[in-house]
Design goal:
622 residues, alpha/beta, 3-stranded antiparallel beta sheet, 59% helix
């Protein structure tokens, strides 16, 4: 990007891509403003270039790529690439100037020949890792770069630095910023990674699972973390069932392992903060901001929270001015050294990934054991990933599952009409466990999803996820594609609409087989025949409308054959419709929590599952 992210004067409302916290794009908290340019084009365009980027963004790799392309003659073949690691230059015992260091680097005693090369402007000077230079050496390095670039201005200079560490002014250098990987680049990286290991099946499964798990795919926008994901997946052919372990590994890589691996000893301004203290600080900030729905926070607010944390540490300064300076330094250190905070616009920060915001929020909830407050958010979809991570982080989640179920049961408690709907669903004989070939809770979930789709006038398959989570045979029997359901919900264009509608026809056919009604059977046959001859244009039209063909006709048929005469869906108020949707979403997150690799007493788990989607009157009989 030719415009640095942190220099943009944007407000939070402009940073939120959709204006809705629930629908934030997970792969990037903020949309890229403007069109990015190719790295090689940027180098061609500017004779002096400063490449900024987050930790692990690929800055060093890009400089090495430039050198290789130049050596091979595919990029600026008239140039001689000279790659200089600024940390090594700064720590040279003889403390040579740059021209002498280049001689040492090239193992060339002919200094005049090097000077002649530079005087002609035939060198591509690649200066890597300004941020990796120790504070004690930085003044010397800066003087050398200024002096050298002014003396040999005819050459091309490319320098890299972590984005938040670039506090030094190089007037003659143009700043650009490395963008995150997009989905195509993630796929390209993964294909090359697994191709080298001759494992095409694992490669395709890796990409499929990434697509199915947006929080994980979000991390893959960082080349460093994408490499970590590939390594983890390579061993087992899957991502860990406990997602918190994966996110903890990612945090560890950014907090400590990356710099250690590269032998970088940074002069940390916040030496009093151990790894645990850093994680505690990030957790407190995450929880406070997530609870208020703030994804983007002002620099002053962030520094205030940091100051409140460090002033309570043993041996902390009591001087207000010193604490203020320390809090600013800590913020910049976390951003520059670890990349966990990113300046999205001028003095506006966020976590680098929404996944990290959620992970640290969950970590703080577990630390505080504040589960009753957590369950108050059970109808808010933006908290659902936090629920799953809290379950992952706890050694035993039995008590949390119980209070989640209690909260869910209370959602429809005061509405007699909705309680009657639950009672009607629970009494449908065709959902008998033995006949339907799935457990009773999944059977109720399938019918509830069908009812919900009718009530909300949405695509039916969207609301079948709960049934599939409760019993995998449902997904297999009715050919339900949950990835397709999610893509419809996210508004993506897909090509498998006909398959989804066919799944609906199968479900209706199963309903018909239980009612033994030939009229409904005829309707189902007509629907299936109609679906087999639908044009792509019509499919796209129905997709855009988020409706199935003949929705009203099917609604009437289901009302006529499956619903008691005194019970009509259209009688629900808007408030009741909202309650039905919240009830479904809350049951879905509870079912997903029960499916995690966690410790819950089998009897308690079974008791909760048996009571899912039941009215209070039936629950009291259990």
């Amino acid at each position: 990007m030719e415009k640095i992210t942190g220099n943009r004067g944007l407000e939070p409302s402009e940073l939120l891509q959709t204006g809705s916290a629930e629908n934030i794009e997970r792969f990037n908290l903020v949309a890229v403003k403007g069109k990015p340019i190719l790295g090689l084009k940027a180098v061609e365009k500017h004779s002096t270039l400063m490449i900024l980027g987050k930790p692990g963004a690929g800055k060093t790799t890009f400089l090495k790529h430039l050198a290789i392309q130049c050596i091979s003659g595919r990029f600026q073949p008239q140039q001689v690439p000279i790659f200089i690691t600024l940390k090594e230059f700064a720590e040279s015992k003889e403390r040579p100037d740059l021209i002498e260091y280049i001689g040492l680097y090239l193992e060339c005693d002919e200094t005049e020949a090097i000077r002649e090369l530079l005087d002609r402007g035939n060198a591509l000077i690649l200066l890597d890792g300004l941020d990796e230079v120790r504070e004690t050496d930085i003044s010397h390095v800066l003087r050398q770069i200024h002096k050298f670039s002014e003396r040999y201005y005819r050459n091309q200079f490319v320098m890299t630095c972590r984005i938040a560490a670039c506090e030094y002014t190089f007037e003659q250098f143009t700043e650009v910023e490395v963008t995150d990987f997009d989905n195509d680049q993630i796929a390209d990286f993964a294909r090359k990674w697994f191709r080298s290991r001759e494992d095409e099946i694992k490669r395709e499964r890796f990409l499929q699972l990434l697509k199915a798990h947006p929080p994980i795919q979000e991390l893959a926008t960082s080349p460093l973390l994408l490499m970590l994901l590939c390594l983890v997946f390579e061993d087992s052919g899957d991502f860990p069932a406990n997602r918190s372990e994966l996110y903890q590994n990612s945090v560890d890589v950014l907090l400590k392992k990356w710099d250690v691996k590269r032998n970088i000893e940074r002069d940390q301004i916040y030496k009093k903060l151990s790894l645990k203290r850093k994680e505690d600080l990030l957790s407190q900030i995450a929880y406070r901001t997530f609870k208020t729905g703030d994804y983007f926070f002002k620099q002053k607010d962030l520094e205030r929270q940091i100051r409140e944390f460090i002033e309570n540490l043993p041996g902390a300064s009591t001087d207000a001015q010193e604490l203020e300076l320390d809090s600013e330094a800590v913020l910049k250190s976390i951003e520059a050294q670890h990349g966990l905070f990113v300046e999205r616009a001028r003095e506006r920060y966020s976590f680098s990934h929404l996944t990290f915001h959620e992970y640290f929020t969950a970590r703080e909830i577990v630390h505080q054991e504040n589960y009753k407050e957590l369950v108050e958010h059970i109808t808010d979809k933006r908290w659902h990933e936090v629920f799953l991570l809290v379950v992952d982080l706890r050694p035993n989640s039995e008590d949390l599952a119980v209070i989640m179920k209690q909260k869910i049961d209370s959602l429809l408690l005061g509405d007699e009409q909705l309680q009657q709907l639950l009672l009607w669903i629970s009494k449908q004989y065709y959902l008998d466990k033995n006949e339907f070939n799935c457990n009773a809770a999944a059977g109720r979930a399938l019918l509830y999803g069908l009812v919900l789709a009718i009530v909300l006038e949405t695509v039916f398959v969207i609301h079948f996820e709960l049934a599939c989570v409760l019993d995998s045979t449902v997904e297999e029997k009715f050919h339900i594609d949950l990835n397709f359901a999610r893509s419809i919900e996210n508004g993506d264009i897909v090509n498998s609409i006909r398959d989804a509608y066919s799944s609906l026809a199968l479900i209706l056919a199963d309903i018909q087989s239980r009612t033994q009604d030939e009229n409904l059977h005829s309707k189902v046959d007509k629907l299936q025949n109609r679906l087999s001859s639908i044009s792509e244009k019509d499919l796209q039209h129905w997709f855009n409308k988020k409706l199935i063909p003949s929705t009203q006709e099917l609604r009437d048929e289901i009302n006529q054959y499956l619903i008691e005469a005194d019970f009509q869906f259209q009688q629900f108020s808007d408030e009741q419709k909202q309650s039905l949707k919240h009830y479904y979403d809350a049951n879905l997150i509870l079912a997903r929590c029960l499916n995690r690799d966690v410790c819950i007493n089998p009897k308690v788990r079974q008791k909760i599952e048996d009571a899912l989607l039941l009215p209070i009157a039936e629950i009291q009989k259990l």
